[in-house]
């Protein structure tokens, strides 16, 4: 099982970080491992969208579907019931701080269904998870400064 959690204070508003996290189709531009991401269906009144994403691990590409539930500006939950995973959950909690800063609480839990792929995907994903918040922070600096 790949598990990672991280808490960090960033000099951006919760709305700014929320917008970056919600913009899943831009993930391949700056997130490690993400080869492709597209929204396949959106239910705006429910603050919900469904995506098809592809991770690239060296020559191996694995595609999967996710469901993203949003509560602007403080929570985004990403889950997957795709057969690739026994469990896949990412949660972003954002809390406003003085001077247009925010506290970010990020967590990822993932268990790959395939016993053959489990060691590869989970180890690589666990390593990548450690750089996800940093990748969003770099993206925020590039977008907002």
Keyword list:
145 residues, alpha+beta, Alpha-D-Glucose-1,6-Bisphosphate, Chain A, domain 4, 7-stranded antiparallel beta sheet, 28% helix
Strand content: over 45%
Order of helices and strands: EHHEEEEEEH
The N- and C-terminal alpha carbons lie at a distance of 37 Å
What about the largest sheet? 7 strands, antiparallel
Mean pLDDT, to the nearest integer, reads: 92
User: What is the name of the CATH class?
Assistant: Alpha Beta
Rg, rounded, reads 15 Å
Quickly give the structural class. Answer: alpha+beta
- The spatial strand order of the largest sheet comes to 1-7-6-5-4-3-2
Annotation, overall tally of beta strands = 7
Uncertain segments are: none
CATH topology: Alpha-D-Glucose-1,6-Bisphosphate, Chain A, domain 4
**Number of helices, counting only DSSP H or I runs of 4 residues or more:** 3
Give the overall form: globular
Count of domains: 1
**Percent range of helical residues:** 25-40%
- Classified in CATH, the superfamily is START domain
Per CATH, the architecture is 2-Layer Sandwich
């Amino acid at each position: 099982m790949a598990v990672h959690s991280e808490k960090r204070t960033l000099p951006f508003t919760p709305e700014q970080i929320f917008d970056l996290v919600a913009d899943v189709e831009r993930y391949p531009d700056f997130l490690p491992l993400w080869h492709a991401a597209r929204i396949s269906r959106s239910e705006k009144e429910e603050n919900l969208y469904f995506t098809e994403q592809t991770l690239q691990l060296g020559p191996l590409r694995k595609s999967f579907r996710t469901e993203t539930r949003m509560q602007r500006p403080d929570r985004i939950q990403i889950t997957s019931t795709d057969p690739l995973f026994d469990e896949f959950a990412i949660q972003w909690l954002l809390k406003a701080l003085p001077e247009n800063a925010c506290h970010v609480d990020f967590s990822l839990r993932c268990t790959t269904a395939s016993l053959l792929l489990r060691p590869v995907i989970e180890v690589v994903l666990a390593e990548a998870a450690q750089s996800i918040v940093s990748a969003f922070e770099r993206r925020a600096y590039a977008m907002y400064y």
